[in-house]
Amino acid sequence: MSAVVALLGFQMLVFVHELGHFLVARASGMRVLRFSVGFGPALIRVTHGGTVYSLGVLPVGGVVQVAGLNAADADDAPDAPGTFNSRPLWQRAAMVLAGPVFNLLFAALLGLLGFLGFNAMRYEGRPLATLVLAEVEGPAAAAGLRPGDAIVGVDGVEIHRLRELNERVGAAEGRPLRLDVRRPPDGDRTPPAVLPYDAENAPGLLVSIPVVGDAWTPLEVTITPAETSRGWRIGIRPQLARFGADGIGSALEYAARGTWALNAQFISSLGRMFRGEEKAEVSGIVKLVSVGADLVTLGLGDWFLDLLVLISINLAILNLLPLPALDGGRLLFLAVELVSRRAVPRKFEAVVHAIGFVLFLGLVLVISGQEIWALLSQ
Question: Within 10 Å of residue 100's Cβ, how many Cβ atoms?
């Protein structure tokens, strides 16, 4: 069931993207021939106002077909009423750009809901780790640590942030460490503390963090860090704090700032990948659904919501890359027209986008096949 919820959540992002194209096309006087969500045989098909609306049996992908935009319409007269190419260049650019813009706005809306409900997991694109453990493995599990435990000291020195713990683990270079731990009693229902995050630099931003109660049992645990490809680790994953806001105005501000920060982070990551400074990691729908299903079980209103924000932003920016069949590719042809004051031959553009679509579809099939094989091999 969680996989179905994850798949429908991702399909919602595609719907939002196509809805942006659809609404701006209509507002610009373009004829929309088809608005489809999903692929395969249609579960629902309705024709209204000259547009065929359909819901495919497979909740993957979608398409908005505007008259004169696709290869099949390449023989239409350029000035035929209601066609894509009959509209001013700025309207055509707005229609193409609307899909990514709607994804960015949707990400900001999800962020707004997160801050209003104290479920936002990032402030300006960064999570805040606590000292309470969510998962343990390796050395931590062998030493007897359990999820829910809180690490409050190392070698007799009190710590307040996960960064302090990581610094001491790294500095030890494999030397055994003595951890001061607090363990909650069974059935502990101590509510989290809600505090101002940074009243001076982030007014109105609140943070909800776990509280180590007076009834928690003090323990002393000796643990030996293990060396990994990422340095010395003790095998823990911390619980993350949740962010909220003191009102709708603050929630709007921090949702917008968070969306902007994540955009900058993703664009910076793309730049490092293109320069060869960072390894590219490509995930297909199979892996995304698998990860999404896991996060649905952890929490629909925070973990999965956070993933949808990230994917919506990624979908927007990736679609703006100047590659054939993507929105950025169409914008590139419009930019050429703006500079040269002459439209690129429509049939040539249609062929370029068709080749790009075939290559993109092939890449999706290869990645999905590899991910299915990996799941079956487990």
Answer: 24
Residue 332 has phi, psi (to 5 degrees) of -65, -45
Residue type at position 338: L
Looking at the structure, do residues 190 and 145 belong to the same domain, yes or no? yes
Among all chains, which residue has been given the structure tokens 């809805």? 19
Tell me which residue range forms the domain holding 164.
129-240
pTM, to two decimals: 0.85
208 and 143 fall within a common domain? yes
Calculate the alpha carbon distances from 256 to 131, 230, 260 in Å.
28, 32, 6
The residue type at 378: Q
Q: Structural domain tally of the chain?
A: 2
Closest CA to 288 of 7, 61, 98, 5: 7
Three-state DSSP state, 281:
coil
Q: How confident is the model at residue 103 (pLDDT cuts 50, 70, 90)?
A: very high
| In a shared domain, residues 32 and 96 | yes
Instruction: Flag whether pLDDT at 340 surpasses 70.
Output: yes
In a domain, residue 294? The reply is no
What is the DSSP secondary structure assignment for residue 185, as one 8-state letter?
P
Three-state secondary structure call for residue 180? strand
Task: Give how far the C-alpha of residue 74 lies from the chain's centroid of Cα atoms, to the nearest Å.
Answer: 35
| Domain termination site, one of 210, 225, 240 | 240
Is 74 a residue whose pLDDT tops 60?
no
pLDDT average, residue stretch 311-330: 89
Q: Is residue 310 part of a domain?
A: yes
Query: Are 115 and 143 contained in the same domain?
Result: no
